[in-house]
Design a protein that fits this description.
Distance between the termini: 22 Å
Number of domains: 2
Strand content: 5-15%
CATH class of the largest domain: Alpha Beta
Strand order of the largest sheet: 2-1-3-4-5
CATH superfamily of the largest domain: Response regulator
CATH topology of the largest domain: Rossmann fold
Oligomer: single chain
Helix content: 40-55%
Largest sheet: 5 strands, parallel
């Protein structure tokens, strides 16, 4: 069961999202919050799988709340809710640990698909955001020899991750446990100075661990 927490200061948005998601099998809305402070506490007590988090709210803004959530409960995936088209804010959210973002104008299919993808640890970013992150990761790569810092097993994990696979799929393909995969992913992020698995996947593509056309085919499977 995918446990979802909705955080938005507009009641109508919360109610609309709840209504949409509660029609879906395998998804349970475990709570709603109108501000960031309440959201941080709710994540601690409700332990949601996915948080739909408003980027702009009174009090602590979405990025501050996101940072707190990822520190408290790294396993919880966060989708940013936004009506903004400002790349800087969206990129800052991804840097802080957001898996992706969801426009408030999104249709039913996009909302449901995004929540299910997030629960699998998968990220879908618009090309312009992905391109910006690729440039940032490329700058990191030019400053060091990053793959030399990884163990052979970590390189294997990164290679499969770059194909857009979830932790469960990586575990199955490499015949290791999901907990071991999580530990390897955490180590990879630390060693490479990256903030999340999205940047790690892009980094793997930049290092040519996976041809780009194969990665795109895997994402579309």
């Amino acid at each position: 069961m995918i446990r979802v927490l909705i955080v938005d200061d507009h009641k109508l948005v919360r109610q609309g999202l709840r209504f949409l998601l509660e029609q879906e099998d395998g998804i349970e809305v475990v709570g709603e919050c109108a501000d960031g402070t309440a959201a941080i506490q709710a994540v601690r007590t409700l332990e949601p799988t996915v948080v739909l988090l408003d980027l702009f709210m009174p009090g602590p803004n979405g990025i501050s709340v996101l940072t707190e959530i990822k520190q408290d409960r790294p396993a919880t995936e966060v989708l940013m809710l936004t009506s903004s088209t400002d790349d800087e804010h969206l990129i800052a959210a991804v840097r802080a640990g957001a898996l992706a973002y969801l426009p408030k104008t999104a249709g039913v299919d996009q909302v449901v698909a995004s929540v299910r993808a997030a629960a699998r640890g998968e990220s879908v970013l618009e090309p312009r955001i992905a391109a910006r992150l690729v440039r940032e990761v490329r700058e990191v790569a030019t400053r060091r020899k990053p793959l030399d810092q990884l163990s052979p097993r970590e390189v294997e994990v990164l290679t499969v991750l770059a194909r857009g696979r979830s932790n469960r799929e990586i575990a199955r393909l490499l015949t290791i446990s999901e907990e071991t995969v999580k530990a390897h992913v955490s180590s990879i992020l630390t060693k490479l100075g990256l903030s999340d698995r999205t940047q790690a996947a892009i980094f793997g593509l930049q290092q040519r661990l996976v041809p780009l056309d194969e990665a795109l085919l895997d994402e579309g499977r």
